[in-house]
Specification:
By secondary structure, the chain is α+β, with helices and mostly antiparallel strands. The chain has 26 helices and 17 strands. β6 and β7 form a beta hairpin. The relative contact order is 0.15.
Amino acid sequence: MRLHRLSVSAFGPFGATQEIDFDALSDAGLFLLHGPTGAGKTSVLDAVCYALYGAVPGARQSPGTSLRSDHAPVGTYTEVMLELTVGERRLEITRRPAQPRPKKRGGGFTTEKAQSWLREYDSGTGEWAALSRSHQEIGEEITQLVGMSREQFCQVVLLPQGDFARFLRADAEARGKLLGRLFDTRRFAAVEERLADLRRAAEQQVREGDERLLALAHRTAQVTGGAVVEERPGEPGLAQAVLTQAAVARSEAREALDITDAAVAAAESRQAAARRTLDTERDLAARQARYAETRRRQEALEAGRPERDRAQAVLDRSRKADLVAPALGLRADAERDHAAARTARERSRGRLPADLADAGAEQLSVWERRLTEELGGLESARRAELRGTEITRERAELTRQARADEDVLEETGGWLSGWEARRADLATRIEAAQEAAARAEHLAGRLEPARRRLDAARRRDALAEQTTTTESRLTAARERRNEAHESWLDVKSRRLQGIAAELAAALTPGDPCQVCGSADHPAPARTGADHVDRATEDAAYAAFTRAEEERTAAERDTAATARAWAAARAEVQDGADLDVEPAVDELAAEVEALERRHAEAHALAAQTHGAREALARAEREYESRVAAQRDAERRVAARTSRLEVLDRELTALDAEVARGRGDSASVAEQASRLERRIALLIDAAETVRAVELTAQRLKEADDRLADAAFRAGFDTPAEASAALLRDGEHRTLQHRIDAWQAEAAAVADRLAEPETRAAAERPPADPRAAETADTAAERALREATSALAAVRERGAELARLSGQADTEVRRLGPLRAEYDRVARLAGLTAGTSAENERKMRLESYVLAARLEQVAAAATARLQRMSSGRYTLVHSDARSGGRRAGLGLHVVDAWTGNERDTATLSGGETFFASLALALGLADVVTDEAGGVRLDTLFIDEGFGSLDDQTLDEVLDVLDSLRERDRSVGIVSHVGDLRRRIPAQLEVVKERTGSVVRQRGNGA
């Protein structure tokens, strides 16, 4: 992998765009990256890492940390572009982190998402071809081509000497963490964890199986009442002890079952005999009780026999009286009809005149016929009276219609006399409304532009005042921004002057200096009276940032107000041919006058439709009134003729009605009086005839009743009537007699039964004693049966528990063998097994092999740097109680002793760590698939070397060019500037850092 060109904009300390030509620097093979502390030397390396992986190394990528330069102006994007060759492919990577930008509409800022671009150079066409804009795709592509993760790249390409110095002094655990990240031995750690998980899972399964076995043993002991096995979970003899216990329990259960079976059979035999005896005694007691109860019923029948005979006699006499009942009914009906007829006759006689009260039926009929003839003679007079009434109503209606027609003729004549004047007035109204509509339309076209100009004039005046205010605010904001900027630059300058004292305050005796790398601090700088700390500088910068934002907002507001004011002025002048801009009052008066004239014209134009409708209604009314006048005149002539005809007819009818009504007020009243008298005569004649008829029927009914009573055996009809029974009484007597006879038959049948008579002759039965004996036998049988069920249940439970125990033992066999195998492998890989003599974990074992390779590769350069004195060797010896595997020692050829790397001096530690870093870079590169690394960077540490050692180190670094590599040294040591002609200098300025290339054609 070779770097060609790097471009950074608004990144870290670089406020503007900076270009770095790595091709020009790489021609010399060895180049120096230098500059004052805080200028941004490391930021160049951060930019390379960010371009490749989208993140910067270490803590500089912590949450909340921004990559954007504080010096960058608003609107400049933070961007990094790297051009490199890797895997025979020339690529260009451009990345922008998430960063704030001004909103396109309104004020304030919004966050723009991170963006990435990947392009490839096509040598055939000489053009760049876009490959992807996806963060994930670009990351996967670069990681695959480079063959290293970001952590590996930062350790191999950007060699941080401080990390390797700590690596030399670290213990085995710390070395393991660093090597594990570089060589990705997570799979071996995963194997350890997987084996440990398998061991725990197998151990848990075995323990659970033993606990289930022990639970079965406890359950077996509970069932049998015996002792529990003494073995515990995990002991080898637990399974055999549980199986033995189960076999003994099953044998004892079978013996108990045979004994309880015999006891149950004997109890069943005794209970059957007791039940037979009880049934016999109960049957005898029932028969004896049946016989005694039958004798009691027989005695009760004999006591009720006289009552039964009397009831039978009453029932027989009632049956004879039933033969006379029809005649009795007929005689009662005839007597009731005769009484009703006499009552009706007396009522009708009371309504007759006194001279007819005692008249017979024939006389009453004669009078009825005479009045009917008189009523028939009134029919002609009644019709004449009805016709006269109709004529009177018709004459009254004709008179009313005549008065109405006279009113219509008078009112219509008056209206028609003013018709011509009314029609001319309506036509004039229509013409005036049409003229007003045309005028309103013309005024409306002038009104809307006038309103817009008035609104624009008002905005113009308001914006003119607002422009003055915003300009004043902008002037004040610019002054505050300039003051804050000068204050911040002054504070920053004062802090930079005393930065040495601030760095000296962080020095610790024995620790290397952050600037020169030396562990000796003979004369640290002191803070002066006017020293400014970082908090004061941050506060001054924050004040400057706020003032800058206020100035930007004021400029934006002033520009927006000016644009709005110009637009308002242009709108006021739009469409007006004026040399002077009109005032708001003038435009308001013009709009008011136009609105008033438009309202008047619009109100008058709105009457057009109403005037036309009024004219149409008036014309329709004119036609209607003319037609009504003609119709009224025709009706008046016809009505006069009709009245003359009706008067002649009414005179003739009045004479005929006078003849027919007699003394009554009207013919109808005379006819009604005659109809009432006829109805009374008819009713009276009918009642007289009904009395005569019912009297004859009553006499005939008496004769038939006397004859029927005599034939039935009764002396008089009254005696027969007394012997009759009602239906309820008859049924009651019959039921009593039937019940007595049925009871007598049942008693006779029961007394005739031979079994009942034989039981009555035997001694009294004793079922209570038999029941006592049966209960005792049944209780004994239940106890024996319960005992048998318990024994069978215990045997079944023991058989089930034995089967479960046997199944569990067979299932545990393979699990226990698997556990033994997995536990042995887990202990071996975890370093806890006795077979692992050095107690090395599997991951440590693999890393130890890698460390041997790193030590061998580092020794090749360390011997040159130390003039053949030092050699790095890997040690797997144990230290105290710690595990072995990742020890690192140095062999001193001058003394022949092997000692820990922590005993090296500061300068020795530097070139040892440098040799280790270069060796590690070679090994990691081979591990990553042999990707060639043509560009390396070494960060700091050269200040701790003397001149001779520095020459030797530079010779080693210069030898890297043999493989066409270029090495960049990051340092601010002054002696290196004289020794290395190709340089990349980072210079601090108030507007942000800048880079300058020197030497080798830069």
